[in-house]
Design brief:
This protein has helices at about 1-55, 60-75, 80-90, 90-110, 110-125, 125-135, 140-160, 165-175, 180-190, 195-210, 215-225, 230-245, 245-260, 265-285; strands spanning about 295-300, 310-320, 330-335, 340-345, 360-370, 380-390, 395-400, 400. The chain starts with a helix and ends with a strand. Strands 3-2-5-6-8 form a five-stranded antiparallel β-sheet, with no helix packed on it. A three-stranded mixed β-sheet has the order 4-1-7, covered by helices on one side. It is flat and about 125 Å long. Helix 12 (about 230-245) packs antiparallel against helix 13 (about 245-260). The chain is built from 14 helices and eight strands. Residues about 75-85 have low confidence and may be disordered. Strand 2 (about 310-320) and strand 3 form a beta hairpin. This is C-type cytochrome biogenesis protein CcmI. It holds the Pfam family Ig_CycH. It is found in: Cell envelope.
Length: about 400
């Protein structure tokens, strides 16, 4: 904070100089220009007098030259030091007003209260950790969690090699459902540890939150192949199925947890209730398991693509054999690139007309400022190559073609 006030003071001084110097310099330069002009006129007139005297047109040349010198002395402007100093002080009220308006405006409209709160949280890391993590009670609020996250991020900004800090930040932001921050924090934790299995499960959960479902599932499957009794991995695996509205898979994965968990565990009854709820919902909706290929699509846009506040991103698949009618589609409002979406038959426009009936598809990503995928005005598009529907795939699409 001290650095802020020093810099703001220097900027204020610079602003004062911008106000004062041109004005004072203008007065001095004005006086200097007038004296210079008078001198030039004196010399020009003196030459004319000499020419007249040489031609015998002027008899009293010396007297005329003296009169000319006296006239020059009368016209010379003398800048008195005392008057110059008074000129500077005349602008002091204007400078004070500028300073007052600047600091008052910052106090009212700037982020000063948030900066003070941030500094306060940064100094309370131990206190917040004890309140939220070590000795939690019923008084822990969402604001306490946010304050702890902010304090921890400040510490990690200063000490970026703290593996446990990055892991804790990732888990806390997962708890707050901030998938992007959790993913970035856990990526850094992965780079700093020699035991990646302690990070992979929460990292996969963060990936699932941000749309990278296929990659997340592959990571969880690898963990379970090495450690089939990893209850955290099974729990995240069930969460992924629930996120995709695949109730059948979620029930099967919860049952795997129940088989490995003691009935005395406090979580046992909670998972039983989750299974019962999913079974009732499955019976009500008569939902069939989602089958068919899945495509995890990472979408990015070229810098040439103009920004439109109301633009909508459409990611969809069409038959590679021809036809522009989308088989499956996702609609994302206010997209922020890069982003990842997963296309499956669950996103079918018509349930009976999906990707399973095609040998190959082409994935397209289109930014439509109008919000309507059929309007090509000002729209930009990117597309993949031909993708087989025989297996799940991951791909990237770069939007760089105007329509």
């Amino acid at each position: 904070m001290t650095l802020f006030w020093i810099l703001s003071g220097l900027l204020t001084l610079l602003l004062a100089l911008v106000i004062i110097l041109p004005l004072t310099r203008g007065r001095a330069e004005s006086s200097h220009s007038r004296n210079q002009l008078n001198t030039q006129l004196y010399r020009q007139r003196l030459q004319e007098l000499e020419q007249d005297r040489d031609q015998g047109l002027l008899e009293e040349g010396e007297s005329a030259a003296q009169e000319l010198q006296k006239s020059l002395l009368d016209d010379v402007v003398t800048e008195k030091p005392q008057q110059y100093r008074r000129g500077i002080w005349l602008w002091l009220p204007a400078v004070l007003i500028v300073v007052a308006v600047a600091y008052a405006g910052y106090w009212q409209l700037g982020a000063y209260p948030k900066v003070v709160q941030w500094q306060d949280n940064a100094a309370r890391l131990s206190e917040l950790s004890r309140k939220v993590l070590i000795e939690p009670d019923g008084e822990v609020t969402e604001q306490d969690m946010m304050d702890l996250i902010q304090s921890l991020r400040t510490k990690l900004h200063q000490d970026g090699d703290d593996f446990r800090g990055w892991l804790l930040l990732g888990r806390l932001t997962l708890e707050m459902r901030d998938g992007e921050t959790a993913r970035d924090a856990l990526e850094k934790a992965l780079k700093l540890t020699d035991t990646p299995d302690t990070v992979i499960v929460p990292y996969a959960e963060a990936l699932a939150m941000t749309g990278e479902a296929l990659r997340a599932e592959n990571m969880i499957k690898q963990v379970l192949s090495r450690d089939p009794d990893n209850l955290e991995a099974w729990s995240v695996f069930a969460f992924m199925a629930l996120q995709q509205d695949n109730l059948t898979a979620a029930i099967a994965r919860w049952q795997q947890i129940l088989q490995r968990m003691s009935p005395d565990s406090p979580r046992y009854a909670m998972i039983e209730r989750s299974v019962a709820f999913a079974e009732r919902r499955l019976a009500e909706t008569d939902q069939a398991p989602v089958t068919g290929p899945r495509f995890e699509v990472e979408v990015n846009a070229a810098s040439a693509v103009p920004y439109h506040p109301g633009a909508v991103l459409f990611v969809y698949a069409v038959d590679a054999q021809g036809g522009e009618m989308p088989l499956v589609a996702r609609r994302i409002e206010r997209p922020s690139f890069p982003l990842t979406v997963t296309l499956s038959n669950a996103d079918a426009m018509v349930a009976s007309n999906n990707m399973s009936g095609r040998d190959a598809v082409v994935i397209k990503a289109r930014i439509a400022p109008s919000g309507n995928v059929t309007y090509a005005t000002d729209a930009w598009e990117g597309r993949s190559g031909v993708m087989s529907t025989d297996e799940d795939s991951q791909l990237s699409i770069f939007i760089d073609t105007p329509l």
